[in-house]
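User: Hello, can you help with two protein structures?

Assistant: Certainly.
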Amino acid sequence: MFESAATALAVLFTLKGVMFLGLGVGIGLVFGVIPGLGGTTAIALLIPLTFSMEPTEAITMIGGVMGSVAFGGSISAILLNTPGIAPNAATCFDGFPLAKQGKAGLAIGAAATASSLGGLIGVAILVAVIPIAKQIVLLFTPPEFFALAILGLSAIALSTGGKFLRGLIAGGGGLALALVGYDAINGGTRFTGGFEYLYDGIKLVPTLTGLFAISEMINLTIKGGSVASEGTENIKISRVSDGITAVFKNWPILLRGSAIGAFIGAIPGVGGTVASFLSYASTVQASKNPESFGKGNIQGVIAPEAANNAKDGGALIPTLAFGIPGSAEMAIFLGVLILHGIEPGPLMLIEHEGVVFSLIVALAAAAVLASVIGLMVARPLSLITLVDVNMLAPTVISVALVGVYALNSSIGDVVEAMVFGIIGFLMIRFDYPRITAVIALVLGELAERSYHQSIMISDGEFSIFLTRPISLGLFVVTVAIIFAPTARMFLSSRKDRGAAK
């Protein structure tokens, strides 16, 4: 193993290796920043370019894309409230408020550092887990998926920012949207209104683009000014170094977010969006000041960004060990491996160990390189927040809609993004939290599918969720999360009464 790692490092630090890694990182950053594109599109477009490459060269370039696209998406999430890719939506909740306060440099510095360190931690977990990957992946079956989805949905109770009833209404709307389209369990279509476009359900990327990018631009246009409109007229961009320092000051949050990202990433079909939101929700739950989140708490940037980059290391566990893609990106990546005559699965770890470590080294190097580049350009990028909204809004909306259209070449996606842009604007104006709707939309389909599969497996016995140790443990954690705020308030009131006496 050490020999393969040394060989991979030697290949990387050649002129060709550095060139392909740099190319992958550059492409990943660009595709991450542009809303609606992301790593899946980038890798799919690069597949033809890998035909004439050596396997290690192709893997290095693809690893560069995967290691950098997540941080690219955080830049637009922080500066414009526009998640470059779906997992970056959680970064919007505190990253954009920081930008509005003139602290975009702080947020970008924290995101860059958390992404870099999260990616390295994810890769370290991958290396440590490869020998026992099979046992870990096979532990998760439909009951565990259902329990995990319910755990994620419990985050709605923690993400309402003091607007519990409105948060529940928004969450209910998100769950209803998750049920739109073809029912894979019972057959037939639901709530489509006769529109064929809705047969495949509500698309996540156009929805997020509308709810965050377009709605925010509509709101800013009505208000006028610039993104960083709060405070004095002479807003100063805070030092990027403050963001770097903040990550090390909050190292427990970094470690927890990275662990959540790697764990969720290793579960096939769940993805980085769930990892980011669970990491954000757990940070809110553990905080002594949960009401500060959504208003510019730097911990709300560190947690999802660490999880977002760490999830790639986790997603590679089922991809390499069994040929089961842990995410959409990994599904495209499997095509690259097969194209170069490498069959994913247990034998790959034995017969192509060098290729595996080339990917691991490329991912680690890409995470660091992308963050270094991001830190170098953070200050000029931060100045976007001072641009007049009458110039900024048309540009952002145009780029967002082009990115949404490019994803599937579907005008329906553009219409969906515009519809959700209006819905998002109304949610802003009437003070309904958008995060609860997004969490419910992301997890609703997973919860429904896993529930029906579990019931069919158990012949209608609900006890299957309570007799399996992992699902039972996840339900216990869910109950603890739901009742923790109440317990905290009870203990606080008792403490206050004791102090009054």
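That covers the first. Now for the second protein you mentioned:
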Amino acid sequence: MQAIINAKFLVDDGILENQILLFDNNIVGFTEEVPEGIEVLDAKGAYVSAGFIDLHIHGSGDADVMDATPEALKRISSILLETGTTSFLATTMTMSEQAIDKALQNVQQHAGQVSGAQILGIHLEGPFINASKHGAQDKAYIQRPTTDLIKNYMQEVKMITLAPEVGGAEYFIKFMKKEYPHIILSIGHSDASYEESQESFTWGVSHATHLFNAMNPYHHREPGIVGAVLDADVTCDIIPDLVHTHPSTLELVQKVKKEKLILITDAMRAGCMKCGTYDLGGRSVEVSDGKAVLEDGTLAGSVLKMNEALHNMIRHTSMSMVEVVNAVTKGPAQKLAINKGELRVGYDADIVIFDETFNILYSIVGGDLKYKRYN
């Protein structure tokens, strides 16, 4: 068992001080005195929360999930620790069936071998999307929704981003909702109308992928997907890199969605790397000034770090420290129905320690110290 002392603990939707956190592989609880003979970590007044969870990340550290190698997963898992992310969904791209199958098989076989941030499963972004809203996805490989592509990976797949208005989507969504309720069905890369979006929520869609991006814009006569999401009791995620979304938009969404808002990075292999030219799904991406674009100027994922996402939300919205952190801990954990995301007794001891500007000082996964900023 270990202890963390001298910290501001983000717990129970508040900040707890003058307490000591005890943990082993799981959270043991809080106490006022350190038991004898256990290891003590002094937070020196820093904040302590559950580890950050990223529901949508393609890669980082010059590695991508679509590389489909154990080394790529290990690289992503390792480098994410410095951003405070202690678990994530390995996110795929719209590519050939062979490339997607290879990536899914790689996660299935090697996810448990990573030693950094834990891989919680797979986020299948496409290929069941609308060609008119393909974004940085390769529209040549878009296909109708079918279980054929994922039938061997139903336990690993935790989220699917799809367009509910395309042919075959209604049957697919209803089937998946009934047979595989653990899989989150998310509207994204879609041109669905307000009415179509609302109807898809009754079928089983319960989330929206990177709200505002790769979907029809909000219009006062045709509110589209955004209007439907803002009106409904579904969750949504957003990329707060100040490139994909304006600060005013971030403020609007958090005011409306509150605890239903989840923050993601949508980072590609250039995350945590220098500016330059990188690959995303077989397409060339130019990265400069915190922006990743294809040759035609289309936004191609992001280079956002999760701790930067939190800092942006604190600076540019009225969200409190607790609310911002909940959007990357409690919120995504509850969406995935896992025992993470809170410093709660019995939950996994995924813990991050950070300062007031979200510089990550320590990252702990399953009770083991995996990252320390300064030696």
